[in-house]
């Protein structure tokens, strides 16, 4: 039984590492082959994750990047289809909400190959986000929908998924498994003593000058109070350079997962527009200010672990002031038991044995 995992962007490497390990450990006759679309291609956006997280080397490596959405998704679709036709997998496994996710799912469905979608059911309800479009379409054509939370299951119910021929399962969040696993390897101390960790990469923030300047001015102000450390996505760096924006905080090259976990673990607070980092902050006992107007991880906001501040300078500063000194007490465990990858591997195995 052959699985082809289609991935291409940083957050997918983090999730696939954990699921690949579980697939290997399952001792079944499942064989996984990895297809990397090349969407993320820099050493520090891609290779470092494969090396330090022990992800099997890609069996197929495309080079589709630096393109508009249509050209990127279209070229991936064409090239993935050719590989699937030649390889005839029993199932295609996709993660999250990137263009690589959608292309992988669409190529598989047209060839009548079943699809397993990890991180199904998430919604921001902002249909302008490319990620929202990708996840709605991928969910709709998937056969196994692995949801990370009960909220995600509810979202799918509301969209009528109980009348669609597919299986929706709450298996918990594979990122929680990963955080527990890799936290054990973090021994070195923090790079700074007191600091706020921040990232900016969402198109809605980087491609809108007023939003980007709102976030950067807020981080500049916070940096007068406490160091702000920002491992910066190449997309954002290019735009900051082009606009010649003034930055007073510390910019780092994008960091690998282990360095990221280290940075989160010792941070005083996290300020981000990343989906993954919002939860990783919680896993490691940190509050988060989210520089978006909505989030898929609504339970974090509902239970006051996260404040949605948007991109408004004053609102970000106000949220920072609320959370920076607040003692952190974990009162909920909404992301499963840390055994999601195992549940996913078991389910794929039983699905394919039918
Ligand atoms: C993509 C995903 C997003 C995910 C994010 C994680 C889509 C639509 N978006 O956004 O869901 O949260 O990955 O990072 O799939 N670039 C480099 N080096 C790299 C990768 C990218 O320089 O290794 C630059 C390229 O110039 C590219 C730009 O960053 O044009 C944006 O990359 P792209 O793949 O379009 O989207 P992300 O912002 O990374």
From TrEMBL:
Residue span, UDP-N-acetylglucosamine 2-epimerase domain: 27-348
Top-level taxon: Bacteria
Enzyme Commission no: 5.1.3.14
Enzyme class: isomerase
Keyword Isomerase appears in the UniProt entry: yes
Keywords on record: Isomerase
Entry keyword annotation includes rRNA-binding: no
GO molecular function, one term: UDP-N-acetylglucosamine 2-epimerase activity
Pfam families (UniProt xref): Epimerase_2 (PF02350)
Family affiliation: Belongs to the UDP-N-acetylglucosamine 2-epimerase family.
Identification of the protein by name: UDP-N-acetylglucosamine 2-epimerase (Non-hydrolyzing)
Organism of this sequence: Maribacter algarum
Top-level taxonomy: Bacteria, Pseudomonadati, Bacteroidota, Flavobacteriia, Flavobacteriales
